[in-house]
Structures are given as structure tokens and as C-alpha cells.
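Case study 2.
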Amino acid sequence: GAAHAMGTSAVSVLINHDENIPSNSSQFVYPVLLFGGGLLTFLDTYRSKPIGTYSKLPGLDDGPVEQTAFDRKLGYKIGMEIHHGIFMFLFWLVLLVGSITLIGRGYDNKY
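Prediction:
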């Protein structure tokens, strides 16, 4: 986790205003870094001794189950409920569509 965050920060600083790396390369680099971090986290959850600290699934003695088993497992593994993830995805989608619309209408990004 921390090593990936430091590497991502180093790449961000390297891309920002570097003379040899075009600034539009970030449109490829950042999604790759995001995917890499998610993949590392996903793989770490299935290790016998994970590096990260993840919440454990509640037992049957913890009260009534209001979600399906899949929802509970996924929600507790990533520490976020499903509707929060859906909201974050929709927020990202609005930003993406807004950016594409601005560029399509001739907005000149000076960076």
C-alpha cells in the first residue's frame, strides 16, 4: 500500500511539467496506476498473510443479515458499501463526460 502510494506520487511529480514527458501521457499513466493499485489490493486480500489490514467478515452471531452474502463479502473486504462505490463511479463518469464535452466544444486546455 505505502510503496504503491509513494511510487504513484513519484510518477505524478515526474509527469508534471517534465520537459521530456508530454503532459498528455497522464491520460494513460494514471489509469494504469489506479488499476495496478486495485489489482495489488485484490491479490493481497487472498494471501494467507496479507500485507494490508482488512476488516473481517462478521459471523452469524452478529445479528440479522440485511445484505446478500456477496454484498457483505465485497463491502467488508474493501471497507466501503456498494452504494458508495456506485456513487464514486457515477461521479467519475460525470467528470469524464464533462471533460469530453468541453474538449469537443473547442475548450482549449493550456496545459
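Helices lie at 2-15, 26-45, 69-78, 82-104.
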